[in-house]
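Example S7 (structure tokens).
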């Protein structure tokens, strides 16, 4: 294993050392105008995703890229209120590329996303992908990055107050979903419901949500799909910029500010960001203030590197520190303090990533090595000495060779995986110390001809995990898991305005350490949980089908899926047995079936008016089980989201992209729940309404600032989301007879961003 790491490091260093920054480069220029009046557009974002290069148009609608490698690339032009355009060019032959931007109607635009064989168009993906851009993130009120994505079709969140959210895609979450940030998979005790995702929301410029098994690209744990976060884009040559943002939320008194400064001087690039966020306990009409829901978050990130004609090399380091309270059911009339009080957690996450690409003609050799350290501590009786104290070390590696496109064919070969070591440093234990090594090799290919695009691949994974003995609580355990994954899919463009998709995939997931070796009280679920060292790996078989239609007045999308998971791992209550005065649960296995999908439609009767609707549904069952244990826990309720948005000002001289919107979220009653031992209960339906408004401020063709105002839960509705952990905490409220803690009441959010 040590030899492998030395080989990877030597490869990266040799590529960087032999690369010649003086290689032949070229310049790309262009002019961008509005199709409606021919006027130049200011502030259009022009990017080359394969090269990690980005710039914006000036006051005359011009843009320029310097020192580009002479290879075939895709150039993407994006402008709010207009259709995104993508053009593929050969930089050996093309130095001038103009765009004429059409105003956005219901037509679906082209967007470059992460595909099986590198960067590809989203419309050519056989699996459903949602893209959340920077403007959507900026105008969506949220307390963390997963909360910001949870309104996307097919995406939900398991919440513990405002500070902790875990993503759920189509009814699957926890270790069945991979989160990628800075190019590597985020690792930080994601098996627990009370563990969030350690990512600074302010440093994210866009997110891709891949729905369905993605084991082919990311190995074990990607049965549900993948969420890929992209950081701040690299500045254009010889430019500097940055931003300062602040945010306030009325319900929790949340105060958030973030400072960013980045630049590019002759190919030497840098980026730095600092974020500070704090909130007191949230409030609702049923519980008043929910004691223990306050949190404090501090983040810092720095990147330095070089972009040249030979490729790029970036080194990123980040620190994430979250101090969330622990809600135990107490309620208060006035709980507005930001100070931490017992009990509380401390979560530290440190990460260093080296991201490197070397251009060989029109092919690319991409190598990433990353180190992460996650430390989770729980303070219950003393603010000085934690009871639970776990430290997780992870070393990630990823090497892939992207072959040049030829006659419609694209292909990629590679290997990736990780090494992990977990240590217990406290007096309480949930899981044993363990060591893990994971390696996967893969080959993917796509072929495009006429109206058809085919894509697929194969992957072989091997994982070894060894748990160490600890006192009388944990016995030593060693297990090996090997599995073959694959997928094949096709996209058929029936016409310019209609597309059909079909994909079949096999994924796998090796049991996690908690499932194999847990032995202790799980505070997040109020259960005593024991593992099962004989568990088999989960095997998933999923079929996805999709239909896209677009016209001048309407666009519609339908995505359906059927997912069968053999050896599905879950906890089962062991009758009336108890340990430490808590019900005893043990991990076991069965066969699961998940059916469902998402439907989306956008009516567009006039240019500036959009009425967008989406409906998400998933039915998750354990096959051959009685009613009490038939439905899988943490299955989101059917949900209908709607928004009516009108753009008041577009392409204005002082105000720009000014809009108003009204939105609605309707969660239907969830009667399909895991009722064994009272694990879950039915959840009534509820509907929430909100308002939003926003605008950009411009001067001399330059974007100076952006302001957004939003109101969520406008009518202060009392409700509980089916995936809220606090729904089962707090018992019966003696003041009103309601059971459990309720979600956040009315919340007004104001965000202001200043651009340097």
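Recovered sequence:
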């Amino acid at each position: 294993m040590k030899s492998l790491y030395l080989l990877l490091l030597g490869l990266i260093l040799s590529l960087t050392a032999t690369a010649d920054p003086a290689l032949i480069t070229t310049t790309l220029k262009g002019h961008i105008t509005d199709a409606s009046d021919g006027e130049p557009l200011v502030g259009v974002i022009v990017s080359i995703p394969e090269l990690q290069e980005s710039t914006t148009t000036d006051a005359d609608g011009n843009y320029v890229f310097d020192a580009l490698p002479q290879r075939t690339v895709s150039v993407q032009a994006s402008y709010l209120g207009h259709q995104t355009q993508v053009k593929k060019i050969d930089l050996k032959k093309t130095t001038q590329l103009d765009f004429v931007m059409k105003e956005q109607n219901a037509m679906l635009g082209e967007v470059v996303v992460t595909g099986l064989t590198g960067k590809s168009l989203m419309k050519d993906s056989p699996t459903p992908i949602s893209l959340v851009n920077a403007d959507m993130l900026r105008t969506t009120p949220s307390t963390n990055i997963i909360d910001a994505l949870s309104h996307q079709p097919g995406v939900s969140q398991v919440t513990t107050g405002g500070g902790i959210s875990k993503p759920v895609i189509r009814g699957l979450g926890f270790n069945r979903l991979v989160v990628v940030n800075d190019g590597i998979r985020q690792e930080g005790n994601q098996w627990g419901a009370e563990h969030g995702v350690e990512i600074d929301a302010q440093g994210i410029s866009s997110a891709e949500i891949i729905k369905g098994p993605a084991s082919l690209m990311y190995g074990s744990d990607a049965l549900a799909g993948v969420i890929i976060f992209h950081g701040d884009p690299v500045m254009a040559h010889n430019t500097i910029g940055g931003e300062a943002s602040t945010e306030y939320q009325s319900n929790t008194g949340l105060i958030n500010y973030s400072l960013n400064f980045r630049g590019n001087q002759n190919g030497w690039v840098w980026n730095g960001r600092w974020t500070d966020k704090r909130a007191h306990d949230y409030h609702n009409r049923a519980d008043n203030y929910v004691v223990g829901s306050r949190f404090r978050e501090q983040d810092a990130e720095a990147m330095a590197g070089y972009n040249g004609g030979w490729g790029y090399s970036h080194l990123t380091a980040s620190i994430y520190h979250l101090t969330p309270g622990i809600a135990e059911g107490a309620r208060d009339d006035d709980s507005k303090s930001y100070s931490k009080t017992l009990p509380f957690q401390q979560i530290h996450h440190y990460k260093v990533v080296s991201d490197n690409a070397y251009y060989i003609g029109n092919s690319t050799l991409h190598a990433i090595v990353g180190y992460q350290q996650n430390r989770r501590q729980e303070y219950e009786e003393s603010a000085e000495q934690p009871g639970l104290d776990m430290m997780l070390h992870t070393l990630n590696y990823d090497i892939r060779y992207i072959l040049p496109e030829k006659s419609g064919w694209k292909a990629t070969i590679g290997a990736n995986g990780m090494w992990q070591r977990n240590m217990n440093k406290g007096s309480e234990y949930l899981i044993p110390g363990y060591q893990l090594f994971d390696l996967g090799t893969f080959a993917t290919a796509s072929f495009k001809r006429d109206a058809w695009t085919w894509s697929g691949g194969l992957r072989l994974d091997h994982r070894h995990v060894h748990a160490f003995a600890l006192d009388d609580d944990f016995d030593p355990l060693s297990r090996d898991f090997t599995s073959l994954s694959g997928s094949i899919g096709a996209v058929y463009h029936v016409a310019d305005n209609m597309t059909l998709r079909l994909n079949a995939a096999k994924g796998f997931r090796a049991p996690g350490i908690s499932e194999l070796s847990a032995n202790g009280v799980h505070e997040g679920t109020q259960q005593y949980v024991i593992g099962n060292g004989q568990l088999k790996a989960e095997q998933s078989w999923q079929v996805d089908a999709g239909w896209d239609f677009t016209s001048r007045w309407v666009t519609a999308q339908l995505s359906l899926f059927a997912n069968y998971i053999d050896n599905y791992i879950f906890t089962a209550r062991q009758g009336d047995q108890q340990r430490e005065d808590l019900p005893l649960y043990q991990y076991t296995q069965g066969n699961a079936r998940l059916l469902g999908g998402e439907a989306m439609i956008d009516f567009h009767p006039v240019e500036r008016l959009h009425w967008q609707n989406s409906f998400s549904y998933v039915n998750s069952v354990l096959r051959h089980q009685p009613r009490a244990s038939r439905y899988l826990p943490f299955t989101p309720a059917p949900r209908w989201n709607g928004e009516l948005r009108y753009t008041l000002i577009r392409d204005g001289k002082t105000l720009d992209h000014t809009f108003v919107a009204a939105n609605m979220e309707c969660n239907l009653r969830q009667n399909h729940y895991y009722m064994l031992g009272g694990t879950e209960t039915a959840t009534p339906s509820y509907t929430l309404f909100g308002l939003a408004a926003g605008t950009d401020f411009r001067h001399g063709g330059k974007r100076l600032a952006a302001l957004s105002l939003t109101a969520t839960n406008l009518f202060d509705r009392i409700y509980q989301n089916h995936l809220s952990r606090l729904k089962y905490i707090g018992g019966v409220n003696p003041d009103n007879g309601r059971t459990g803690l309720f979600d956040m009441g009315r919340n007004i959010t104001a965000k202001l961003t200043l651009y340097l």
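Notes on this example. The longest strand covers residues 554-579.
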